[in-house]
């Protein structure tokens, strides 16, 4: 898991979410505001995250609800446009996530120079989006075909809004995913964005992940970040950073700074 330190230059990095507004074609797309509104709001969130002191940023189409497991091409194309507009202002390592399309996420990372992606790469699930299947072998080969071998892959093995088809334990899933798929990191989530991650599940994944990095993926707050980072190797934080901690609101730099103060104090004890 040394790649985390090499990428973010700190132990226990915190990656802030830059949630993009609904894309063209999405049910919530603001036709009046158009792409200019998406870009302007993304820039404001990015500035708040960086001013607050996060170690990295993950850019995702979080407001493309309800999500597709195979996205329309316009989604990743527009995201590439948005990230192109942000590039001159990005001062920290960044990743991308085209929800919930692993191939499109890798394509976007290659196109924009992102250091990592977060996605559902493995498993079959009963989900809010229907029966959700994956093909990690195909995605791994696509990654090589598009020269994405340097893009780090964060596997969400406890996906939001879904449960595994089958009865394997999280310990078994962790061990087999690490052995068969060689992920760069494993993400552990709660039910939805902003929902608390079960620390006992996080601990089970960490205990069985070997040298693979484990990230807490949802529900981190200023009150829980130290406890969760005592287990996990990194944290991805989105909803807590929003004004009043509400998912739909803009990012609040003061809330970012508050959480990062807790993290810096924790790091000073290393």
What's this, in brief?
By secondary structure, this protein is α/β, with parallel strands linked by helices. About 40% of the residues lie in helices and about 15% in strands. It has helices at about 1-10, 35-50, 75-85, 100-110, 135-145, 170-180, 200-210, 225-230, 255-265; strands at about 15-20, 55-60, 95, 115-120, 125, 130, 150-160, 160-165, 185-190, 215, 235.
Features:
270 residues; three-stranded antiparallel beta sheet
Query: Structural class of the secondary elements?
Result: alpha/beta
Which word captures the global form? globular
Low-pLDDT stretches: none
Largest sheet: 8 strands, parallel, barrel
Order of helices and strands: HEHEHEHEEEHEEHEHEHEH
Task: Trace the largest sheet across and list its strands.
Answer: 1-2-3-4-7-9-10-11
Number of strands: 11
Give the count of helical stretches: 9
Mean model confidence by pLDDT: 96
Separation of the first and last Cα atoms: 17 Å
How large is the radius of gyration? 17 Å
**Beta-strand percentage range:** 15-25%
Q: Roughly how much helix do the residues carry, as a percent range?
A: 25-40%
Describe this structure in words.
The chain has 270 residues and is of the alpha/beta class. Helix content is 38%, strand content 17%. It has nine helices and eleven strands. The strands form two sheets. It has an eight-stranded parallel barrel, surrounded by five helices. Helix 2 (34-52) links the parallel strand 1 and strand 2 (56-60). It is globular, with a radius of gyration of 17 Å. The mean pLDDT is 96.
């Amino acid at each position: 898991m040394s790649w985390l330190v090499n990428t973010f230059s700190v132990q226990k990095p915190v990656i802030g979410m830059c949630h993009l507004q609904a894309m063209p074609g999405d049910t919530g797309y603001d036709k009046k505001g158009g792409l200019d509104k998406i870009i302007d709001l993304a820039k404001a969130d990015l500035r708040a995250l960086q001013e607050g002191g996060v170690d990295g940023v993950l850019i995702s189409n979080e407001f493309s609800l309800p999500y597709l497991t195979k996205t329309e091409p316009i989604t990743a194309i527009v995201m590439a446009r948005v990230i192109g507009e942000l590039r001159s202002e990005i001062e920290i390592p960044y990743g991308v996530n085209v929800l919930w399309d692993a191939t499109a996420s890798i394509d976007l990372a290659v196109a924009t120079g992102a250091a990592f992606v977060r996605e559902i790469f493995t498993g079959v699930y009963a989900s809010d989006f229907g029966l959700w299947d994956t093909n990690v072998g195909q995605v791994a080969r696509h990654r090589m075909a598009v020269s994405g071998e340097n893009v780090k892959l964060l596997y969400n093995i406890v996906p939001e809004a879904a449960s595994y088809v089958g009865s394997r334990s999280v310990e078994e899933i962790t061990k087999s995913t690490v052995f068969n798929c060689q992920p760069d990191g494993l993400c552990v989530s709660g039910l939805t964005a902003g929902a608390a991650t079960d620390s006992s599940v996080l601990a089970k994944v960490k205990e069985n992940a070997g040298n693979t990095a484990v990230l807490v993926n949802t529900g981190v707050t200023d009150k829980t970040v130290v406890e969760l980072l005592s287990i996990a190797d990194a944290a991805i934080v989105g909803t807590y950073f929003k004004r009043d901690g509400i998912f739909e609101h803009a990012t609040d730099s003061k809330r970012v700074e508050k959480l990062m103060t807790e993290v810096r104090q924790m790091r000073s004890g290393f």
